[in-house]
Predict the structure of ATP-dependent dethiobiotin synthetase BioD.
Amino acid sequence: MYKRIFITGIGTGVGKTLTAACVTEALQADYWKPVQTGLEEGTDTETVRSLLSNPVSVCHKEVYCLREPASPHLAARLEQTRIDVERVLQQAEIVQPADRWLVAEGAGGLMVPLNEDVFTLDLVARLQAQVIIVAQNYLGSINHSLLTARVLQQSGIPVLGWIFSGDYHTNEDEVVQWSGYPRLGRIPQAARVDRAFVKEQAGKLTITGAH
Ligand SMILES: Nc1ncnc2c1ncn2[C@@H]1O[C@H](COP(=O)(O)OP(=O)(O)OP(=O)(O)O)[C@@H](O)[C@H]1O
Ligand SMILES: C[C@H](N)[C@H](N)CCCCCC(=O)O
Ligand SMILES: [Mg+2]
């Protein structure tokens, strides 16, 4: 079994990057965003690099960096290219030493296409990663959360549990109960997100079951 954790979310903009930084800090892991779309506001790799305190974590280079802030298959099409999943998988082998945890972050959620044939979900399965799902509370988030859980269950992908992004809401209990996946923690809404905040939140996560 690879020591790989894939951070997915119930959608885009739900707090995966900050959560990934906290998980990376907690495990003193390495971080990797293989496919980045949208470059104008900076990359997730730059964000995570700026938020880590420990001296051992490495933030690896992306395999694809695509300018358009869109689904990877569309952003790739605009640049007359195609995301080659085999290349992403080969790169995972290259960047990851066998004894180190790798925290990988997807672009958007699991049913985001990487090309005309492959979804992010398929990449997760091929990476043989264990999954952490980031959920945020909003009206409609129970549906998005349980759809995400269902597609992972149906794919037989191992799930470590949920990390909630933002302040507590009872919907969180619903999502845990209906899905059967445990709560690994919550990253509260912060007025200022910095290294100290990430370090503090990393110390509160309980990432059990990772092996
Ligand atoms: N707990 C928090 N406190 C304050 N701001 C937050 C928190 N979580 C996320 N944010 C902010 O919300 C915005 C969207 O979150 P983020 O970029 O992490 O989404 P994402 O799920 O990683 O999206 P993508 O699919 O683009 O990778 C960012 O500006 C981020 O800094
Ligand atoms: C640009 C954005 N921040 C993400 N990196 C890409 C999100 C793709 C979402 C696609 C979709 O679900 O419609
Ligand atoms: Mg992100």
